[in-house]
């Protein structure tokens, strides 16, 4: 697995060491915790993205949800149209701070089998998303 870059850069411009800020994508669409799974999938399709940053009523990042997770929930036997993003247990955390090194983030993502990781500031505002390619 390697880190996915937000923009193409010449190899000489890529630092070999750095923080997640050097590699993260823009935060992208941010949605509220009370959004339903179906609506979240529609937002994802419209935005042509594989993940959404999930925020609480104060606009602070509470986690990230992927298309794979939403599809799994929707296709599950216990699915109802009343399930909200806050009801999905693995939406909450973990997060990376802007000072987290890329190597630390990549190790944590591999260990937890995460495809994407929100990057938040000290107040909980989403700054971006770090994603791994397979």
From TrEMBL:
InterPro entries: CBS_dom (IPR000644), CBS_dom_sf (IPR046342), Diverse_CBS-Domain (IPR051257)
Gene3D superfamilies: CBS-domain (3.10.580.10)
Keywords: CBS domain
Pfam short name (any one): CBS
Top-level lineage group: Bacteria
Stretch list, region Disordered: 1-21
Metal-binding found in the keyword field: no
Record PROSITE patterns: CBS
Segments forming domain CBS: 24-82, 88-134
4Fe-4S listed as a keyword: no
Name of the protein this chain belongs to: CBS domain-containing protein
Organism: Streptomyces capillispiralis
């Amino acid at each position: 697995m390697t880190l996915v870059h937000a923009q193409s850069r010449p190899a000489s411009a890529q630092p070999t060491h750095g923080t997640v800020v050097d590699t993260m994508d823009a935060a992208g669409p941010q949605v509220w915790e009370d959004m339903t799974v179906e609506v979240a999938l529609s937002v994802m399709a419209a935005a042509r993205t594989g993940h959404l940053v999930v925020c609480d009523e104060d606009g602070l990042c509470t986690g990230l949800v992927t298309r794979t997770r939403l599809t799994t929930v929707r296709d599950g036997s216990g699915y109802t149209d009343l399930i909200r993003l806050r009801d999905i247990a693995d939406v909450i955390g973990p997060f990376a701070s802007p000072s987290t090194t890329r190597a630390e983030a990549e190790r944590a993502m591999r260990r937890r089998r995460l495809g994407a990781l929100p990057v938040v500031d000290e107040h909980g505002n989403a700054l971006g998303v770090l994603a791994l390619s397979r």
